[in-house]
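name: query_chain
kind: protein
chains: 1
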Amino acid sequence: MFFELIGTIVAGAAAALLVWAINRTLKGRLPKWLIPAAAGVAMLMATISSEYGWFERTKASMPEGFVVAQAIEERAFYRPWTYAKPYIARFVAVDQAMARTHDAQPDQRIVDLVFYGRWARTAKVPMLFDCMNAKRADVVDGIEFGADGKVLDAEWRSVEPDDPILTAACEAS
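structure:
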């Protein structure tokens, strides 16, 4: 966040300096309001660029084995450009590389879901999926596993069979 603020300020200063230099070359023929207006437009464009580029930058820096399962687009009235093209403010990734299964229960697996947010901390949450029956359960204190790998005391929740998080979790090898 700090580096984005510095980048935005630098973009505004560079635009103002450029317009000032052009105005000086033209011997003051440009209107005086153009310098701060150019700085403001450059700062706004730098902010928009940073906002729309966040998802791709974050996705590119994810560890190997992480797969984006679901991206959430947002619109905001104080960002009118988002009505033309919404931006991705948060997304869920599945850590397929660390999927855990039991030989006796091949259709059930525990995967780590990683929740990314634009201005939020990253959260890693283990989740249990039953791929055959399209169900999920939170891995919390109190869940126990039997000797045959069967999950005991889990609160299963049904999900749609085409749920993108279930699909990504069940593709894990």
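note: The first strand starts at residue 66 and ends at 74.
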